[in-house]
């Protein structure tokens, strides 16, 4: 049986080529292939491409911002305020005008005891209007603002006392003691803190602990007070109590660098150099600009005989003009034997 001939659907004269979905002859098929695309189609295609690329770029930016915002929220819930701050900063890089992100950064910085970061955005926080539509966030920010204010517990009266160079240490102590007994509640926290500082400078560590604890009892949200309390216990050679006090700060902030640094120096006094290095590195991982943490890393590595690591971190201290660099070098050279 003869196969039926299929005619080209375009010219209706030549036989169509086989095995193609459209019935076109050879000449017509080649003509269609060579037919130029109209300029308006090309122009439209370019416009569409530009729109697609712009949309993808904007989508990427939105995605980065959203991911970091969620990371920040998660870190806050885990009491990891340094991680939260870093995440919110990355999100703000994508959306620098976001009042929500600025608010969350402020909250995380205050809770994380990072007053330098809080200072940078405090004025902007007071001008934000976003809170009109988010009362829960407003309450969070208000609580953070109150806590931020409590950190500035030095009053003009206290400043005059500690700045008076004509007063002896005993006179400073007695004058500030009188302030703690006054009815001026706004002076109380600062008075007890600076009384503790004066007692400490005078070598009266037990009295200093009592004063610092009084300051903490007035403002228990300020976990920074745990640091001088622990320092006093450490100087009394009560290392276990000092470490216990420092670890209490992690109830408030899992990434509290000053506590890790203090733990490291207590470990050095105990000659537990491995633990000292561990805590120092933890502090350094939280904040690469923490020169006290780097000092502890240097000393720990020195006693662990990790000379290459020790020298690497000494160089960082030198590059940053660390104020105690001579003391660190004296420890390394064996002139100071505090931790042997």
UniProtKB/TrEMBL annotation:
Mark the transmembrane ranges. Answer: 39-59
Repeats (TPR): which ranges?
189-222, 257-290
| InterPro entries noted in UniProt | TPR-like_helical_dom_sf, TPR_2, TPR_rpt
Respond yes or no to whether keyword Cytoplasm is given for this record. no
UniProt keyword list = Membrane, Repeat, TPR repeat, Transmembrane, Transmembrane helix
Q: PROSITE patterns recorded for this chain?
A: TPR, TPR_REGION
Q: Which positions are tagged coiled coil? A: none
Stated name of the protein = Tetratricopeptide repeat protein
Q: Which species is this UniProt entry from?
A: Tepidibacter hydrothermalis
